[in-house]
Amino acid sequence: MKATYMYGAGDVRVIDVADATLQQPTDALVRVVRSCVCGSDLHPYHSMPADPGGTSMGHEFIGVVEEVGDQVATVRPGDFVIAPFAVSCGICVFCRAGLQTSCVRGGFWNDTALGTAGGQAEAVRVPLADGTLVAVPVDEQSDEALLASLLTLSDVYGTGWHAAVRGGVRDGSVVTVIGDGAVGLLAVLSARQLGAEQIVLMGRHEARTDLGIEFGATEVVAERGAEGIAEVRELTGGLGSEIVLEAVGHRPAYDQAVGVIRPGGVISRVGVPQYEDAPVGFGTLFGPNITLTGGPAPVRAYIEQLLPAVLDGTVQPGRVFDRTTGLDDTPQAYAAMDARDALKVAVRP
Amino acid sequence: MKATYMYGAGDVRVIDVADATLQQPTDALVRVVRSCVCGSDLHPYHSMPADPGGTSMGHEFIGVVEEVGDQVATVRPGDFVIAPFAVSCGICVFCRAGLQTSCVRGGFWNDTALGTAGGQAEAVRVPLADGTLVAVPVDEQSDEALLASLLTLSDVYGTGWHAAVRGGVRDGSVVTVIGDGAVGLLAVLSARQLGAEQIVLMGRHEARTDLGIEFGATEVVAERGAEGIAEVRELTGGLGSEIVLEAVGHRPAYDQAVGVIRPGGVISRVGVPQYEDAPVGFGTLFGPNITLTGGPAPVRAYIEQLLPAVLDGTVQPGRVFDRTTGLDDTPQAYAAMDARDALKVAVRP
After folding, report:
1. Which terminus of chain B has a lower count of CB atoms within 10 Å, N or C?
2. Do A149 and A45 have their domain in common?
3. Nearest by CB to B289, which of A93, A99, A286?
């Protein structure tokens, strides 16, 4: 079968690999209907050292179950499924607490310990299928218009939702979203769904911020740094934002969050931090009683809750996909997203 | 009148100063009945550069109102009052939200902008008296046994309570408290009051940890570093603590908190950080979805709630005071706390 591998910065190739097969009685084999490229895939695309062995890519996919192991009870061959970006058992203390990204038996796609490969491929072996996969009442052909939105439930919508939930967004909240990528835009949508009254979107790509406005942003701030901070503070009555959803992951975005947050506020991060140390002392978080929260979204915990509005079309998170490509063209998808020609590219094997 | 000044590291003196007087129509003049030395006073006691002008000291006191300005409505001469460690107006957006430490008009004791002096003195001018002071139905003479516990409401009890509230302690919580100073011990008491099931106290001064056990700690861990972390993890079923209340403020205490926290858990800091940068990235806070919260406690917000159990003797937070001295002996109080001969010293002017 075909699968996508990265061999170093800027070097993505679609190659022939051995077909995915069941290995454990708890596995399912899923034929991929749609996968996609994630903003976080661009981090290694910028910085990965050359590696002749390559790395299997992709952690977002939806598909159809082809085969299941003897111990799999909740999905059957023929089921249409959503695969979250984390593998999880569904029964450990963390899964039961809704924190499947910390599952004691789980892991991720392209995970050495689990022996998983990536989702930018024709098929994927899914470990711990009962805990990981969610079967949805969808038909691959007749529901094709829903596929893009369903695909966002494997990562970016659940991640935006996680940001908003962890941030404590509720009726009347004053929220600032940092980042106009897919996660930032879906953080806007999530904040709107949770009742936010004011949603300031910080981003400077007009096509994206326009979509953010359609998703519910009340204002857009294109400036960054001190100027951007001043503008957000002015828009929020001089007080700053009650809640900041940080959907970038670079240090300047953290500093931006600290700059626009209100005393007593919550900074909720879902952009994967490309830094380890950051200021947290009296002059930043401690003095004004700022809360810092967030992390990798346990999207598995949110799928059932978010699904109905996707299925009935109330929300269309799939609008973050502005391009679809075949599997052979996955390298071009990376290049287009890296060049910001594309917001997010779906891959149809 | 007499007041306590610090002139540099280790150099505390009680000197004669001009009597405190009303300056604004919103001021009250309070005769100090009890003040005390705080663990945070020891930070400048270790590091303050020599300053011939000196710094007025003390931010915790209870006393009797002697005189009020024309615009003061809620306290009258003769009232027994508790003075929180922060001055606050009571009516701004932050005061109304219960975050009086971020009051837009307020500040602290010994605050240049407010022109306040410290509480380790015979009397104190209290700005914004209506927002700041809380009158309590107590008689200086006949209720003398309550004075120590009432004094904790000006800082250390409210600070321990803030740690527990911000940490989200509730029925059944698994909590670790880092630090066996007055705030750590009162964080133990607060966690117990809020229903915590397990409270591990990390501290190595047996007289203090013994009091911690009386306040509700279920286990004491004297070890620090990797060994202490391993012990707490073992005591918490290998999972780590759901909530960590950090009552020290030094970087090793932060690292200890990160080491013992459970995925999805909350680290609530009330020890004033003696550092600005700390790790918050994927390997520490982000990956396991840890929340970092806390800050200077808005003790004003908690006094009415905590007062009844103090007045009826249900709790005795004043047990953290193990010594009382006269105002002239305040320098010895600093020395005794610094040498850890005393846990916390009350000062009776």
Report:
1. N
2. yes
3. A99
- Of B281, B285, B289, nearest to A102 by CB-CB distance is B289
Whether A106 and A61 map to the same domain: the answer is yes
- Judged by CB atoms closer than 8 Å, whether chains meet at A287 and B295 is answered as yes
For residue A43, what are its two tokens?
Answer: 């981090």
Q: Is B324 on the interface with A (CB under 8 A)?
A: no
Chain B, nearest residue to A287 by Cα: B295
Tell me, yes or no, whether A284 and A323 share the same domain. no
Share of chain A above pLDDT 90, in %: 99
B94 touches chain A (CB under 8 A): yes
Q: Taking a C-beta distance cutoff of 8 angstroms, is the pair B43, B4 a contact?
A: no
Summarize pLDDT for A333-344 with one digit per residue, the tens.
999 999 999 999
Whether residue B96 is found in the same domain as residue B220 = no
Residue-level pLDDT at B201:
98
Each as own residue / partner, the long-range contacts of residues B223-229 (CB below 8 Å, 24 or more positions apart, any chain) are B224/B252, B224/B256, B225/B252, B225/B256, B226/B259, B228/B202, B228/B256, B228/B259, B228/B260, B229/B256, B229/B259, B229/B260
End-to-end CA distance of chain B: 10
Chain B residues close to A289, C-beta within 8 Å: 99, 101-102, 166, 293-296, 298
Query: Chain B partners of A273 at a C-beta cutoff of 8 Å?
Result: 280-282, 286
Q: With an 8 Å Cβ cutoff, is A92 touching chain B?
A: no
Instruction: Assess whether B146 and B77 both reside in one domain.
Output: yes
Output the domain CATH number for residue A42: 3.90.180.10
Cβ separation B285–A295 shorter than 8 A: yes
Distance CA A269, CA A292 (A): 8
Q: How far is A280 from chain B, CA to nearest CA, in Å?
A: 6
Q: Any residues with CB less than 8 A from the CB of A88 and at least 6 apart, and which?
A: A95, A100, A101, A103, A105, A106, A128, A131, A132, A298, A300
In a 10 Å sphere around its CB, with 0-12 CB exposed, 13-18 middle and 19+ buried, how is residue B241 labelled?
A: buried
- For residue B292, give the nearest of B225, B244, B338 by alpha carbon: B244
ipTM, two decimals, is 0.96
What's the domain count of chain B? 2
Q: Do A206 and A223 fall into the same domain?
A: yes
Tell me the CATH number at A262.
3.40.50.720
User: What amino acid occupies position B121?
Assistant: A
**Yes or no, beta carbons of B281 and A280 under 8 Å apart:** no
Q: What is the pLDDT of residue B97?
A: 96
DSSP H or E segment with residue A167: helix A156-167
Q: Which of residues 267-286 of B touch A (CB under 8 A)?
A: 269, 272-273, 275-286
Of residues A269, A289, A293, nearest to B102 (C-beta):
A289
- The reported pLDDT for the residue numbered B217 is 98
Q: Which residue has the tokens 């996508």?
A: A4
Find the closest chain A residue to B286 by CA distance.
A295
Query: Do B263 and A288 lie within an 8 Å CB cutoff?
Result: no
Same-domain status, A232 and A146: no
Structure tokens at B237: 């079923």
pLDDT in tens, B271-305: 999 999 999 999 999 999 999 999 999 999 999 99
Domain residue limits at A163: 159-294
Using the 3D structure, point to which of B257, B276, B294 is the last residue of a domain.
Answer: B294
CA-based torsion, B68, B70, B75, B77: positive or negative: positive
| Mean pLDDT, range A161-183, rounded to an integer | 98
The pLDDT value recorded for residue B328 is 97
- B72 in Cβ contact with B130 (< 8 Å): yes
Same domain, B274 and B330: no
For residue A162, the chain B residue with the least C-alpha distance is B289
- A277 Cβ contact list (under 8 Å, min separation 6): B277, B278, B279, B280, B281
